[in-house]
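To fix ideas, we quote verbatim a fold written out as tokens:
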Amino acid sequence: MSLTADEVKKIAHLARLGIDETDIDAYASDLSNMLDLMTQMGETNTDEIQPMAHPMDQMQRLRPDVVTEKNQREHFQSIAPQTEAGLYLVPKVLD
């Protein structure tokens, strides 16, 4: 797909980019090459490919789900300016 100078100007306007008139041809060429690459990637047959969560096919390391600190809720509620029924009361910020 080949982009015209007018299309590049429109894209630059939508992206709020200021580009020099002398650079428009270079931008058109670069953007056209990117669109051609995306077209090629879209045409690639991926029917036999399993989806991956990570391009390096790595697993996320997880730690054991165990309690590491004691419950200090009562202490924190006792030093809070205002609490009610186990909740912290804060000033209203939205109407």
Observations:
- The CA atoms of residues 7 and 84 lie 60 Å apart.
- The chain has a mean pLDDT of 91.
- Strands lie at 83-84, 87-88.
- The chain is about 40% helix and 5% strand.
